[in-house]
Structures are given as structure tokens and as C-alpha cells.
Write a structure and sequence with these properties.
Blueprint lengths: L4 H19 L9 H23 L5 H30 L2 H15 L3 H5 L18 H20 L3 H24 L3 H5 L2 H16 L6 H5 L1 H18 L12 H12 L4 H6 L2 H8 L1 H19 L6 H28 L3 H29 L3 H4 L16 E4 L8 E5 L1 H17 L2 E6 L17 H20 L2 E5 L8 H9 L6 E5 L4 E2 L3 H5 L14 E2 L5 H8 L4 E4 L12 E2 L2 E2 L9 H25 L2
Parallel strand pairs: 2-3, 2-4, 4-5, 5-8
Antiparallel strand pairs: 1-3, 6-7, 9-10
Helix pairs in contact: 1-2, 1-14, 1-15, 2-6, 2-9, 2-12, 3-4, 3-6, 3-15, 3-16, 3-17, 4-17, 7-9, 9-12, 11-12, 15-16, 19-24, 21-23
Length: 609
């Protein structure tokens, strides 16, 4: 197959689109289509190589996979080594577990499926994940795994083209339907939804379009239309669009039109030396640009970059990309036999060793007590880590049956109520959830993704019996509660005459993660300690419901001096992130509000006798 400089230039355009989008989505809202351009190019080039060798009886699956490994894996593993080392220095321990799992799946080229279970690609926490971009490489390697098998199995060119076209249309439709069904995050990282993009490149290879008279005569107009589709998509498509799916056809078609055209002004522009060189190092640029941005966001607690930060990010990306290309990527392409296997095995061993010792190294470097930086009580009765309903407080207590329910804020209050229970001789059971409170009756439409609904239903099935036997419910949730007001209304109306409900006020949140910002459990005056404190008021509609029911109470504890210097109390860290109290925080919260809580609880205990 001939080497085409214009394809290298197209690669450069793709990586620039992605780079600019990651720097500032406002400037280029659809720049993420650069990834789709890469997928089409990959499908085109790899299919050309495979099909050519198959026709000449020179194709070998072993040689193909060996070539892909040499091209992609060494530089990729080197990147993961550097990311792991830097993360061990700057990540707080509470973030290490998720990153470690991400690194594990990244090593296996399965990070796309792992990230599909987490926050969306466009979420704030995702923007701080230094390995988020590895999902594209995972999809590429997965595609390379079965593409040659398809080409070997279906040798009839017309049948192959028809099959790929039908599959592409079906998968594009699958992507659109899944996005419309609120499963956008899962589909964004899905191999099935991305296969049509590769297949469009494959079909362009199998159809002899470059030799077609119409294409040759109208080459300039086709390239011009193709580049227009790409540029238009990068501005008109954005992160709220129903993408991927049928909408992805637009930039992919633009890429195909450029690939099948040649010897015109657009292709000549793409073939200029600067773009060709950037295309040559585009893989390294893609590898390094994102971690640099993610680490910057994480360390400084920012979402947007200023001019100086952009300059430093660009400079570091250029330096690291050139280093990686010159000393890792390019040499390993040319290594053969033992000269390849020994350094490759060494890099692989280092990655595995770092993954194994990652938490230990991080703990030695950060030395932050776990009770200040993560929830430490009640995790076995919470959310995705649920095992069973737990009992806390004075477990020998045989009086009123008390149940603490709610979302992640209720999880942190388990320590609060546990302290009071041991001090005042009462026990309580508890079951809590992430994001969505453990109250019966939340509708499917309440949940942003199916997995959250499944998790909620699992918890509610476990809680059915204990809810029916409970005398006093203690409920806490973050925000105003408008999302689940209907379910709460039904829950309250179904309370038995001997059952009571206490809704606890939500405690305030702070504007940034204090653990990352402070880097210590003691207030560090050298760091930026300017925090905005936000008090989220409960919905007036819920207050009206509570007032109308004699067995329901709203206990407002949040307006308290304990939060005057949040996220610190007496210069000691009391939050483990922007919105959750740590063990110390709940302890001092008890000291300042415990008596008021107990007055309400004792009143209900006596009333229900």
C-alpha cells in the first residue's frame, strides 16, 4: 500500500481537534469528533493492509497482532508507568482505588467498558482522570482483534461490503437508541457503537473509489465537502448532542471523502510538512496531552485553564510527545526478536509491579489518616458495596426499632447517630445509597442511568421487611428533594400510626475538595483556603407535607457555628470531599447539635409507646 502524506495530515487535524476540545470545550464544542476521524482512518488503513496481504496469500494473524502490539503497546505502557508514579505523589488515597482499577483495565485494553460504569465522559470528576482517554485505544485494540477474522471469513468482496454496511446501519441505530434512552455514558464508550466508524473506513478500502472516474474528476469538490463536514461537525455537534449514533455519520463521511480523494488542493494542504510531522507524532500527542491536563485540573482544583496554564500544557505535551516518539514509540517499531522482547517484558513488569504497590507507595507519600479522607463506617450497608443491613449504636438495646435511610449524606451520618446511640443507649439499623435515597417508590424516570435504578431496586428489596417493622425513620438526603417528592409523599402517607419520620436537614457543601486543596488534615495556610459554603434548603413542598402530618418532623441542624469555618473546624479538616463530612466532622457535629437531635428522638420514643 502506498504511503500517503495527506492521511498523516488528516491525523494531525484529528489530534488538534481533540486537543483544542480538551483544552476548552467552549472554543470547539465538537472537537471530540477527532476520535471518530481516527477510527475511520484506522479502519481504512488496517483493512487496506490486511486485504492486500490476504489477496497475495501473505497474511498471518500472528504477524498482524505482533505488528499492532509493537506499534501501540510500548509507548502506551510507558505512559501508564509515568501516570502511576505522578499519581502516587499527587492523588489523595481516597481517589487511588478507582484510579488503580482504571489502570488495571487500561493495561488489559478494557478501560472503555470500565469507564462506562462510572461518570460520563464529560463529567467534572472525569476531567481529572489521567487515563480517561485510554478508552479509545481499548476500542481500537478490541477492533483489531476481530477485524482480520471477519476479512478472512468473508472473502467475497461484495458480500463483505454488504455485511459491513448492514452491521454499520444496525449499530448506528443501536447507538442512537441507547443515547435516547439515557444510557449515553455507556454507549459513548461502547465498541458496538464505534464499530460503524471503523467499518466506514473498511468499506472505503474495499470499494475501488479512488480509481472511479467520478471521484477522480470531482476529487477537489469531494475533499472540500469532506473537510466542510468535519469542520462543521466540530462546531455544531456538542456534548449534549445525541452522539454517537446516526449523527456520527457526518464527520465519518467527511473523513471517507478525503480518504478516497487525491491530487487536489485540499489533500495537498494536508500533505504539507508541518501537518505531516504532527500526524507522525499524533499518537504520542494523543497519549500525553490528556494526562497533563487532568493532573493540572486535579492538583489545582480547576476546570478551566488560563493563558499561562495553556502555554505550559502545550509546551509539556510537545516535549513529552517528542521524547516518547523518539525514544519509545519509534525504536520499538524497529526492534525485532530478543531486542524487542527484553525491553518490552521489562516495561510490562514495571507496570505490573507499580500497580501492585500503588496504594502502598501513595500511602507512604501522602500519609493522610483514612478517617479524614473517606467514609469509614457503614459501607457494607451502602450503595454498590452493599452486603447487608447493618446495626450500629448500642447493639444491646431492645427498644424502639430505628432505621437510618437516605443517600450518601446519610452514609456520613451513620457515624453521627452511632456516637449518639452508644452514648444514649439506643441502636439503629441502616441502609443507604449513592445519589438516590433509600425510600420506597422512586420511579424509573427518576434515575439518570439504568444501573442506578438496578442498584436502588436491589437495596429496596433488601429493606422491605425492616421498613415494615421500623418504628422511627431517620431520613437524610442532599439537595432540596424535589426529584423524589412524589415518592416521599407516598412514603409518608403509608406510614402506620405507630411509625414516625424525622427528616434531617442537609449540611452545607463547600466549593472545592479540601483534601486535595489542603494536602493535610491540619489547615495549611500556604494553600488557597477560600471556600464558598452552600446551604441547600429543603423544598417548601416537602415542608408543607411534613407540617400536615403529626408523625413527621423536620430537624434543621445545619445552621450551626460548627460550619462557620467549613471545611475546617478549629483548623482541622472536617470534610472528605466537597459535600461530605468525615469522621471528625460528624464528631464535632454531634458535639454541637447532638442534644437537639436527642430531644426530638426522645419525644418520638415516648410518644410511640
Amino acid at each position: 500500500m502506498e504511503f500517503r502524506n495527506d492521511i498523516q495530515g488528516l491525523r494531525a487535524i484529528a489530534v488538534l481537534l481533540v486537543f483544542i476540545f480538551h483544552l476548552s470545550p467552549e472554543v470547539l464544542p465538537g472537537g471530540f469528533i477527532g476520535v471518530d476521524i481516527f477510527f475511520v482512518i484506522s479502519g481504512y488503513l488496517i483493512s487496506s493492509i490486511i486485504f492486500s496481504k490476504i489477496e497475495n496469500n501473505r497474511f498471518s494473524l500472528v504477524d498482524f497482532y505482533y505488528g499492532r502490539i509493537k506499534r501501540i503497546v510500548p509507548a502506551y505502557l510507558f505512559l501508564l508507568i509515568v501516570i502511576t508514579i505522578i499519581s502516587a505523589f499527587i492523588f489523595v488515597p481516597s481517589d487511588i482505588a478507582n484510579l488503580r482499577w482504571g489502570l488495571f483495565w487500561a493495561v488489559l485494553f478494557n478501560s472503555n467498558n470500565y469507564f462506562a460504569t462510572l461518570d460520563t465522559y464529560f463529567g467534572a470528576s472525569s476531567s481529572e482522570n489521567p487515563i480517561l482517554h485510554t478508552w479509545t485505544l481499548a476500542i481500537e485494540m478490541q477492533f483489531y482483534l476481530f477485524l482480520p477474522i471477519i476479512l478472512l471469513f468473508i472473502k467475497n468482496r461484495k458480500l463483505l461490503i454488504s455485511t459491513l454496511a448492514i452491521i454499520s446501519l444496525l449499530f448506528f441505530g443501536y447507538g442512537t437508541l441507547e443515547v435516547l434512552s439515557k444510557n449515553k455514558s455507556a454507549i459513548y464508550f461502547s465498541l458496538l457503537a464505534r464499530c460503524p466508524e471503523f467499518f466506514m473506513g473498511t468499506i472505503a478500502t474495499l470499494l475501488p473509489l479512488r480509481a472511479n472516474n467520478f471521484v477522480r474528476i470531482n476529487s477537489l469538490w469531494l475533499s472540500l465537502f469532506g473537510i466542510s463536514l468535519i469542520i462543521g461537525s466540530s462546531f455544531l455537534i456538542n456534548e449534549t448532542s445525541y452522539f454517537p449514533g446516526y449523527l456520527a455519520i457526518i464527520p465519518c463521511l467527511g473523513t471517507v471523502l478525503i480518504l478516497v480523494s487525491s491530487n487536489n488542493k485540499i489533500n495537498n494542504i494536508l500533505a504539507n510538512k508541518t501537518l505531516v510531522f504532527l500526524g507522525e507524532i499524533s499518537y504520542s500527542v494523543y497519549l500525553w496531552h490528556w494526562p497533563i491536563m487532568a493532573f493540572t485540573r486535579y492538583y489545582y482544583g480547576i476546570n478551566a485553564f488560563d493563558g499561562f496554564q495553556i502555554f505550559i500544557i502545550v509546551l509539556l505535551t510537545i516535549i513529552l510527545s517528542l521524547f516518547s516518539y523518539s525514544f519509545i514509540e519509534k525504536p520499538f517499531r524497529n526492534y525485532k526478536g530478543v531486542r524487542f522482547y527484553i525491553p518490552f517484558a521489562s516495561i510490562s513488569f514495571i507496570v505490573v509491579a507499580l500497580l501492585y504497590y500503588f496504594p502502598w507507595i501513595n500511602k507512604k507519600l501522602t500519609d493522610l489518616p483514612i478517617e479524614y479522607i473517606a467514609p469509614t463506617i457503614g459501607l457494607s450497608s451502602h450503595g454498590s458495596s452493599f452486603k447487608a443491613i447493618e446495626t450500629f449504636g448500642d447493639t444491646s438495646y431492645m427498644g424502639k426499632k430505628i432505621l437510618l435511610i437516605g443517600d450518601s449524606h446519610a452514609l456520613t451520618m451513620k457515624n453521627y447517630v452511632d456516637i449518639l446511640g452508644k452514648k444514649n443507649s439506643f441502636s439503629f439499623k441502616t441502609i443507604t445509597n449513592d445519589r438516590y435515597p433509600t425510600i420506597p417508590g422512586l420511579s424509573r424516570e427518576t434515575f439518570s442511568e439504568p444501573r442506578f435504578y438496578s442498584q436502588y431496586m436491589n437495596l429496596m428489596n433488601a429493606a422491605k421487611e425492616v421498613i415494615s417493622l421500623t418504628d422511627i425513620f431517620i431520613l437524610q438526603f442532599s439537595g432540596d428533594g424535589e426529584l423524589w417528592i412524589n415518592a416521599l409523599k407516598i412514603f409518608i402517607s403509608n406510614l402506620k400510626p405507630n411509625q414516625s419520620l424525622i427528616i434531617l436537614s442537609d449540611y452545607p457543601s463547600v466549593s472545592k475538595n479540601p483534601v486535595r486543596e489542603n494536602k493535610s488534615i491540619v489547615k495549611n495556610q500556604k494553600r488557597n483556603q477560600n471556600y464558598d459554603i452552600g446551604f441547600r434548603q429543603i423544598s417548601p413542598k416537602i415542608l408543607e407535607i411534613i407540617k400536615s402530618k403529626p408523625n413527621c418532623y423536620y430537624l434543621n441542624l445545619a445552621k450551626n457555628k460548627v460550619f462557620d469555618d467549613a471545611p475546617f473546624y478549629r483548623d482541622t479538616l472536617m470534610y472528605y470531599d466537597r459535600g461530605h463530612l468525615n469522621a471528625y466532622g460528624t464528631k464535632v457535629y454531634v458535639e454541637n447539635t447532638g442534644e437537639e437531635f436527642m430531644r426530638t428522638l426522645n419525644t418520638l420514643t415516648k410518644k410511640n409507646r
